[in-house]
Amino acid sequence: MSPLRIAMVAPPWFELPPTAYGGIEAMCSDLIEQLCLQGLDITLVGVGRNGTPADFVPTYDQPNESRLGQVLPEVTHAAELTDIIEKIDPDLVHDHSLAGPLMARGRTMPTVVTAHGPVNGEMGRYYRGLGDSIQLVAVSDAQRRLSPDLNWIGTVHNAVRVERFPFRERKDDYALFLGRACVEKGIPQAIEAARRAGIPLKIAAKCREPEEKAYFERVITPLLGPDVEWLGEADRAMKAELLQSARCLVFPVCWEEPFGIVMVEAMACGTPVVGFRRGSVPEVVTHGRTGYVCDDVETLAQAIRKTDELSPHDCRREAELRFDVGMMADRYARVYRSVL
């Protein structure tokens, strides 16, 4: 029997694997590698250079990092899919991009779409408009509950290759915020909680887009001080060092975060997570074992102080048991078979 042929469509912004920021791209890269190991025939549709074992069709010779969020790279990437998919002739298309699913209607093969972002509001309207031309996969049960009427085919948690994350049992005495400079991620709340806890905070965050830069200058800069260190955007090596060394990751999201792969990355390093009870946080963090799920800044501060009571080995073990890439690939393989 010939192997299942999958066209994997990544977003048009970063190469796979990404060198720094790029949670979707990191997840796609790990998934592709694992599916290839399992014998599937994968062709990646992406940008720039290919660092995965899949065959590769680029829509742009260079990644579009400096144009992140602009319309034209997204729609141009999508517009080229019809010809690309026709030439590849896969059994199934797995799309991780925003505009790509618009090209699904009329295909002879099914299109599976992983919803990496919001699924309510205008995004819910978008997915409803696509109807049964796509089969949607949620990244958490919390995300799926926001719009249960969409054309869901399954729920698959994002995952990482846990063995590639360095484990460290003895932690340094700082808390870490790792993410993006925007109101939804809760940097001011992280700063306030760390200060109440009396624990230094290191902030490593993507701050490239004009809105992010404006938010940083207006909101974050006035809050920095000797106890709150701004590090800028972390590359993979820096991220691994920060995550393995921190006493905890602070994740005070102020919106219904669909997943938050950084929580799993922290756990893989043996580092507990303290976060607000929003979105997928209660689904990912086992309260009192791999971190604490909190309802306000004061309980967040108390949790930061208590994280040295938690076992780094428990964090690592739970990442291995629940969020390793092998399980994610197995679940996607089951999704693929269910729509063929």
The count of DSSP E runs of length 2 or more, i.e. the number of strands, is 13
Briefly note the CATH topology name of the largest domain: Rossmann fold
Mean pLDDT: 97
The CATH homologous superfamily of the largest domain corresponds to Glycogen Phosphorylase B
Radius of gyration from the CA trace? 20 Å
Walkthrough of the structure:
By secondary structure, the protein is α/β, with parallel strands linked by helices. The protein is 38% helix and 19% strand. It has helices at residues 23-37, 71-79, 81-88, 121-130, 141-146, 187-197, 210-220, 236-245, 261-268, 281-284, 297-306, 312-322, 325-339, and strands at 5-9, 41-47, 55-60, 92-95, 111-115, 135-138, 152-155, 175-180, 201-206, 228-232, 248-251, 273-276, 291-294. The chain has a seven-stranded parallel beta sheet, with helices on both faces. The chain has a six-stranded parallel beta sheet with strand order 10-9-8-11-12-13, sandwiched between helices. Strand 11, helix 9 and strand 12 form a beta-alpha-beta unit. The longest helix has 15 residues, at 23-37. The radius of gyration is 20 Å and the shape is globular. One of its GO terms (biological process) is carbohydrate derivative biosynthetic process. Pfam families: Glyco_transf_4, Glycos_transf_1. Keywords: Glycosyltransferase, Transferase.
